[in-house]
Amino acid sequence: MNILLTNDDGIQAKGLNILAERLEKDGHNVYVVAPDSNRSAVSHHITMWNTNTLKKTGDNRWACSGYPSDCVCVGLESDLFDFKFDVVISGINQGANMGTDIVYSGTCGAARQAVLNGVPGIALSVDPLIWSDENLKNMKYEALADFAAKNLEELIKLANTDVPRIFVNVNGASRDSYLGVKYCKSLCIRDYGDKLKIVDNNGITEAHFVPGGAIPREDKTCDAYVVKDGYIAVSRVYAEPLAAEIVDGMPFKL
Question: What residues of the chain score a pLDDT lower than 70?
């Protein structure tokens, strides 16, 4: 297969390169277009009024000055490549992208952009479970990379490039192996507890981001608890907003 890889952690990220090596081992044609530095939590940011630059960093590797969704657009909608991709894979991300995370995730934004461009999109993320310097330093990506490579055709089939378009979201903990795989229709709702601290810096008012705990509300069937229990969580996520049912009898004034 012709595979386009990207991420939001940057082209030098460990998870991206482990995944690329694993897919190349199976004989796939792997091409990487990824941000030139970390672009975490940029959601579906696309560059419209500025010019992105591309720098070739190796065989079939390009660093892009833009965002994850920009990288997908470069790969699928420009003339950088003279062939079609069979799938876009975003990741493997350092950190979970489950439930509410998907709104903010650059990793998921790239997978979403892929299906909007008519190519199956898959997002892969590894949860350290405990965010500490030691855990992040020793993140384990190999087991999820192996799962993705072994099940690539099955994951592609879960995506949908026709309306309603759907990308595939895969999460696992930082582990050497998994107990199994569970399809999660229920996605976690996060209580982040984030705050902004206002600081006066020599007459300049600054708002400093103070992260909370990203605690999921209790739902044992949702992706967050499945991952915590040692399983891989696989979900199908709508790429486009879906309107809720209108409230019957709602009066409007003109």
Answer: none
pLDDT digits (tens, 9 = 90+) for 97-118: 999 999 999 999 999 999 999 9
Give per-residue pLDDT as tens, 213-233.
Answer: 888 888 999 999 999 999 999
pTM of the full structure:
0.94
Q: What is the DSSP string of the chain?
A: -EEEEE-SS-TT-HHHHHHHHHHHHTT-EEEEEEESS--TT-TT----SS---EEEEETTEEEESS-HHHHHHHHHHSSS-SS--SEEEEEEEES---TTHHHH-HHHHHHHHHHHTTS-EEEEEEE-SS--HHHHHT---HHHHHHHHHTHHHHHHH-B-SSSPEEEEEEEES-SS-S-EEE-SS---EE---EEEEEEETTEEEEEEE----EEPS-TTSHHHHHHTT-EEEEEEESS--PPPPPTT-----
Q: Is 167 exposed, middle or buried (0-12, 13-18, 19+ CB in 10 A)?
A: buried
Contact yes or no for 97/107 (Cβ under 8 A):
yes
